[in-house]
Amino acid sequence: MDDNKDLIKKAIESRDKAYVPYSGFHVGAALITEDGSIYTGCNIEIASYSPTICAERTAIFKAISEGHKSIKKIAVIGDVENTFPCGVCRQVIREFGKDATIIVANSEDEYKEFTLEELLPNSFGPEDLAKAKKGDA
Fold first, then answer.
1. How far is CA 115 from the centre of its chain?
2. Which of 37, 53, 68, 118 has the fewest CB atoms found within 10 Å of its own CB?
3. pLDDT by residue (tens digit) across 6-31?
4. How far apart are CA 46 and CA 69, in angstroms?
5. Is the CB of residue 58 less than 8 Å from the CB of residue 44?
């Protein structure tokens, strides 16, 4: 099966599980790790907003909690056309998928692929901290 369409289908299924009583804005995500494992997530809102978590981070944190540290692809789909990951999610994707493909989908057949560099140019990551520790910053 086509990786992209499979991921988008799983993101759509996850979007349907979103808990969004305040915004009503449903988002689903699905990712595939380097070894082919698939993890899904939906956005979950909390009345005080700060603890709210996006679909992308839910899927990523599920993968990390199961021992996967490298994302190959992540698909995102929302209630409106071209729902992109927020800035926080882009930074989390950067941590675990610097070379990951980011799929922004409207349906299984209508989507666009992006690199992280396109969505988060000149990003900051673990190697920057390593440089600072060595005094190379």
1. 12
2. 118
3. 999 999 999 999 999 999 999 999 99
4. 27
5. yes
CB atoms within 10 A of CB 123: 15
Per-domain residue ranges for the chain?
A: 3-134
Q: For residues 62 and 40, what is the distance between their CA atoms, to the nearest angstrom?
A: 8
Instruction: Report the predicted TM-score, pTM, of the whole model to 2 decimal places.
Output: 0.91
- Token pair for residue 121? 């140019």
**DSSP string covering the chain:** --HHHHHHHHHHHHHTT-B-TTT----EEEEEETTS-EEEEE-B--TTSTT-B-HHHHHHHHHHHTT---EEEEEEE-SSSS-PPPHHHHHHHHHH-TT-EEEEESSSS-EEEEEHHHHSTT---HHHHHHHHHT--
Half-sphere exposure of 8 (CA within 13 A, CB side): 21
Q: Under CATH, which architecture does the 3-134 domain have?
A: 3-Layer(aba) Sandwich (3.40)
Residues designated catalytic: 56
Q: What is the pLDDT of residue 132?
A: 78
Q: Is the four-CA dihedral 41, 46, 51, 54 of positive or negative sign?
A: positive
